[in-house]
Amino acid sequence: MSIALAHLSCRELVELVTAYLEGALPAGARKRFEAHLSECDGCTAYLEQMRTTIRLSGKLSVDDVSPEVERALVHAFRGWK
């Protein structure tokens, strides 16, 4: 017997992506997450971008980021909620 899973919106997926990548989502939420991915190319691309960011960020040092890039990042994230 299959139970219909409640639809997960793109916004909800973005909020859950860290927990998903860390393997911290409960089974039901993980199934909803993966069901959404199977139908949404945009969120699939977003997930891959996050995986790439995580992989590459471990290779950056403070000296790799120019002052201009640092200022741009601080500005971009200053109002982020």
The Cα radius of gyration reads: 16 Å
The total tally of domains equals 1
CATH class descriptor name: Mainly Alpha
Mean pLDDT level = 86
Structural account:
The chain is mainly α. The chain has a single domain (10-78), classed as Orthogonal Bundle (Arc Repressor Mutant, subunit A). It has helices spanning 10-21, 27-39, 41-57, 67-78. Helix 1 (10-21) packs parallel to helix 3 (41-57) and helix 2 (27-39) packs across helix 3.
Descriptive keywords:
81 residues; Arc Repressor Mutant, subunit A
Compose a concise summary of this entry.
This protein is mainly alpha-helical and 81 residues long.
Lay out the secondary structure.
Elements: H1 10-21, H2 27-39, H3 41-57, H4 67-78
Helix pairs in contact: 1-3, 2-3
